[in-house]
């Protein structure tokens, strides 16, 4: 449900945000392991929709998807979708394509120049989410780009020509996008492992995002089929299905509530999980702050919140095997300090998360000797600051061999868990083209644990929010959620416990 805003809101400390100047995004969020070129699929917050928490919507909708009766779906379930014909793109992209890119390139995309421009705009929109991300580079799936831009049943691959059009530059005009290259200037990707990475060029990144309405019916039909297929996948997935059941119970914070919380947190020098300090821009550009890379900004966090919720909630996206099947939705991508302001059935929420889940999963999978490992224990035994340990654990097992050895945690695990570390190193070395095999196995175990926990809670009539290795719920449900999570971890031979964060 969108937040109601006045044209201008002021709070103390001379903080002023002009909400009528904000341009909000509606394209795919940054999802490194499951990138697409599409807008998120939204579910409306509608209390008139009846849900059975254990199996929401499944009986009434699955038969339509199995038959792929798109018109039937539109007629019976219109509340679950927002304008799939609307995307958001960097300002002046359309003008650049029409005025600066030679017709000779555009005609290779489609003889109809308007359609050629529209297909190029569609691909560019897949990078718009980076406007609200710390990471400007984003992987785009060549398979999906191909499926969505190919003309009819023609097997000709159009998307490489579209990429050329988006990259086109002159001595006086920068291209719309750039492709990540290695030290030798070669565009990098690994077949079956990593797609090419792209980013919006500086010229187009400086402006705002603007709305664009797709007109070509062939493009729209392909998008419809993609969206409906995504919803079917969500309904068939226990975690995502649970989330669909939860959304009608969610009450989002008002704009004033968010600003009030932001003021309190900035005064207390609040840091997010990545150790970045929450800060008001106060109309300054990021460059105003010499240490801007160590900060996250209130105004940008609010824009991200709007992007994730103003049209309803995203239909949950299920990741592929590289993510272990992790699920991404509006709340996993939401800034955590704003997510904490959400209410379920009008009741404040708490987050229940596992203590050092991934290190303990590593102990289980690779036969480590320790049980119930905590970040605090590692910090004490390694003489590394606790905050640093927490941050390093986010990526340690996902690193290359070289990256692991460069980490401050390496010597700790080498001395305390040499056999476990040896097994991990052998695995990464044996799969040299995909060093992420270790994290893929760990993500899969994490998803298994969270799936089992959610399924058991759903059987008790409890729907919960999901944030990878944590669940959020009503305060009144916190104790039972903790008990179930602890039980399921033990059943999966992972020795850790959960903690309720009030």
Give a structural overview.
The structure is a single chain. The chain is an alpha+beta fold. 42% of the residues lie in helices and 13% in strands. It has helices spanning 58-67, 70-76, 93-99, 103-109, 113-125, 142-149, 159-167, 202-205, 217-236, 238-247, 255-267, 298-309, 336-339, 357-365, 375-382, 386-393, 401-406, 410-416, 418-430, 437-459, 478-491; strands at residues 9-11, 15-17, 42-43, 86-90, 138-139, 177-179, 197-200, 209-213, 250-251, 277-279, 295-297, 313-314, 317-318, 327-328, 343-344, 347-354, 465-467, 470-474, 498-501. The strands form seven sheets. Strands 9, 15, 16, 17, 18 and 19 form a six-stranded antiparallel β-sheet that branches.
Task: Please give the structural blueprint.
Layout: E1 9-11, E2 15-17, E3 42-43, H1 58-67, H2 70-76, E4 86-90, H3 93-99, H4 103-109, H5 113-125, E5 138-139, H6 142-149, H7 159-167, E6 177-179, E7 197-200, H8 202-205, E8 209-213, H9 217-236, H10 238-247, E9 250-251, H11 255-267, E10 277-279, E11 295-297, H12 298-309, E12 313-314, E13 317-318, E14 327-328, H13 336-339, E15 343-344, E16 347-354, H14 357-365, H15 375-382, H16 386-393, H17 401-406, H18 410-416, H19 418-430, H20 437-459, E17 465-467, E18 470-474, H21 478-491, E19 498-501
Parallel strand pairs: 10-11
Antiparallel strand pairs: 1-2, 3-12, 4-8, 5-7, 6-7, 9-15, 13-14, 15-16, 16-18, 16-19, 17-18
Helix pairs in contact: 1-9, 3-5, 4-5, 4-7, 5-7, 9-10, 14-20, 15-16, 18-19, 20-21
């Amino acid at each position: 449900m969108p937040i109601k805003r006045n044209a201008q809101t002021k709070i103390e400390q001379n903080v002023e945000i002009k909400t009528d100047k904000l341009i909000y995004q509606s394209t795919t969020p940054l999802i490194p392991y499951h990138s697409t070129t599409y807008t998120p699929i939204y579910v409306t917050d509608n209390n008139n929709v009846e849900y059975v928490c254990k199996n929401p919507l499944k009986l009434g909708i699955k038969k339509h998807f199995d038959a792929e009766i798109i018109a039937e779906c539109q007629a019976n379930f219109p509340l679950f979708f927002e304008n799939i014909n609307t995307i958001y793109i960097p300002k002046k992209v359309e003008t650049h394509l029409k005025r600066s890119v030679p017709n000779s390139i555009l005609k290779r995309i489609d003889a109809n120049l308007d359609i050629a421009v529209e297909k190029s705009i569609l691909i560019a929109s897949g990078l718009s989410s980076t406007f609200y991300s710390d990471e400007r580079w984003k992987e785009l799936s060549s398979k999906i780009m191909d499926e969505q831009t190919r003309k009819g049943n023609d097997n000709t691959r159009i998307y490489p020509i579209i990429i050329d059009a988006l990259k086109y530059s002159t001595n006086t005009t920068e291209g719309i996008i750039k492709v990540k290259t290695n030290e030798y200037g070669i565009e990098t990707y690994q077949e079956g492992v990593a797609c090419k990475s792209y980013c919006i060029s500086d010229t187009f990144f400086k402006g705002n995002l603007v709305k664009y309405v797709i007109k070509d019916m062939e493009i729209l039909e392909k998008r419809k089929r993609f969206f409906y297929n995504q919803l079917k996948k969500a309904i068939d997935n226990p975690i995502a299905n649970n989330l669909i059941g939860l959304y009608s119970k969610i009450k989002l914070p008002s704009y004033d509530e968010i600003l009030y919380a932001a003021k309190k947190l900035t005064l207390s020098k609040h840091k997010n999980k990545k150790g970045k300090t929450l800060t008001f821009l106060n109309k300054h550009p990021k460059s105003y702050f010499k240490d801007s890379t160590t900060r996250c900004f209130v105004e940008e966090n609010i824009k991200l919140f709007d992007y994730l919720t103003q049209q309803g909630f995203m239909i949950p996206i299920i990741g592929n095997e590289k993510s272990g099947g992790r699920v991404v939705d509006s709340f996993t991508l939401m800034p955590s300090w704003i997510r904490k302001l959400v209410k379920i059935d009008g009741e404040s929420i708490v987050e229940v998360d596992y203590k050092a889940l991934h290190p303990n999963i590593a102990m289980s999978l690779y036969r480590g000797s320790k049980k119930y490992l905590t970040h605090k224990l590692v910090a004490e035994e390694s003489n590394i600051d606790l905050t640093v340990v927490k941050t390093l654990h986010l990526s340690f097992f996902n690193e290359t061999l070289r990256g692991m050895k460069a980490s401050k945690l390496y010597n700790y695990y080498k001395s305390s868990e040499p056999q476990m570390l040896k097994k991990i190193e052998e695995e990464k070395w044996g799969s040299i083209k995909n060093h992420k095999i270790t994290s893929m196995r760990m993500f899969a175990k994490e998803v298994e644990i969270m799936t089992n926990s959610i399924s058991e809670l759903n059987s008790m009539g409890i729907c919960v929010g999901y944030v990878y290795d944590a669940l959020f719920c009503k305060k009144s449900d916190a104790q039972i959620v903790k008990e179930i999570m602890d039980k399921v971890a033990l059943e999966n031979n992972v020795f850790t416990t959960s903690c309720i964060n009030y």
